[in-house]
Amino acid sequence: MSGDILNLQITIISPNGDITASVTPRATERVADLMAHLILEYRLAGLPENWQLLLNGRPLSLEALLRDELPAEQGTISLTLSPTGATMPQGIPGMPPAPTSRTPGRSSGGFSGSVARPSAPQELPRPAPMAPGAPQPAPMAAPAPARSAPSSERYYRESRARSSARVAVPETTERRATVRYYSRMNPDRVFPLLVILTRDEVEKVIKKHVEQTATGPLTLAKDVPLEVEPVLPGCQCHPPKIVTRLGDGNDVFTFYIVPHVLGDITGARVLIRQDHATIAEIELKMRVVQRTLVVASGLSTFVVPAASAAMKHFGLDFTPKDGSSPYLAALNFLFGQVSPVVLTAVLAVVTVGLYWFTRPKGRDVFFDISTKPPK
Questions:
Q1: Could you give the C-alpha distances from 76 to 1, 19, 48, 117, 133, in angstroms and in order?
Q2: What phi and psi, each to the nearest 5 degrees, are found at residue 321?
């Protein structure tokens, strides 16, 4: 055996004489396919069910592969093809012996080999002489035409088609697709997005502005490349697309999003494709906003103390004359009673607090993944 090629020497036992053939089939061929080819090649009578392929006297299974029935050894393996003794199909007489020579270098069906010269057929007895005046015997009916070769060819083609159909069906598995993302983002900042493929459901995380969308069970092929592509208009995505194959466990794909627009991201979704077909399309709800309060508080930290100092320098007074205006009273207290240093300190603390509570957080529990059995 060399790789997946077998070296077989098959002795075919037939009523017309023994035939020795050397063939080199693939180890992944079925026993029935090899027998059908031999029946067709050497014009034997019947179908593979009417014959048996023997290895040291043990018949091989028709539906098994050659590599499962033959020993894994180097060199030539000797087999015997003989009739099983089962009833042949009606109208199939014995076929003439196989040709004793073949054109060098030619073979059909992926087999190659040579055939030994069969033994000479026995001479049929001559009829006895007839007496003068005796009536002539009735002519004998011609034998039915041999149909073994067409039947074997049809069986061979059908079995090959069944084998090809079994090989073409890929192995599949079920996965659930879950997308975890930030529903509220700031422009020109980096935000992560996770696409998770698991057998079980992914538990949601409790975090501000973090959303999670999942699909039901998806049937995916194991050996076919899988494409995962986020579609986010107005945003940059790194990497733009991931092409991979399914693993044995959970698969987590991480993307990084940089928004360049303000407002709702229309048409935001994640596409999962396999073999140029869309398996799932997961819609996302995203919005990009500016941190207006942080900007306003930061500006007031410098503007308000400067205004207070300027008013004191120029002697401006916001004291209401009749004492009835609360706005003028507040301005008088802010600019007249509070020093600019105190105003600067208070507004700086407010600005830092607003930034702390509104800053984008890229870690914490966002990347923590835990699963639970589906309901």
A1: 8, 17, 23, 21, 64
A2: -70, -40
pLDDT in single tens digits along all 375 residues of the chain? 555 788 888 898 877 778 888 888 888 888 888 888 888 888 888 788 888 888 888 898 888 888 888 887 767 888 898 888 654 454 444 444 444 444 444 444 444 444 445 555 555 566 666 666 666 666 655 555 544 445 556 666 666 666 555 555 678 899 999 999 999 999 999 999 999 999 999 999 888 889 999 999 999 998 899 999 999 999 999 999 999 998 888 999 999 999 999 999 999 999 999 988 999 999 999 999 987 766 776 776 667 666 666 666 556 555 555 555 666 566 666 666 666 677 777 778 888 877 776 665 545 678 888 888 887
Task: Answer yes or no: pTM beyond 0.85.
Answer: no
Contact 229, 193 (CB under 8 A): no
Asked if residues 268 and 231 have their Cβ atoms less than 8 Å apart, the reply is yes
| Antiparallel, parallel or unpaired: β 235-238 and 76-83 | unpaired
In a domain, 131, yes or no: no
Q: Where are the alpha helices (DSSP H) in the chain?
A: 31-41, 66-69, 148-168, 292-314, 326-332, 340-358
**What is the domain-level CATH number for residue 184?**
2.60.40.2660
Phi/psi at 93 (nearest 5 deg)? Answer: -80, 175
Q: Which domain holds residue 304?
A: 292-358
Structural domain count, the chain: 3
Is there a domain that residue 77 lies in?
Answer: yes
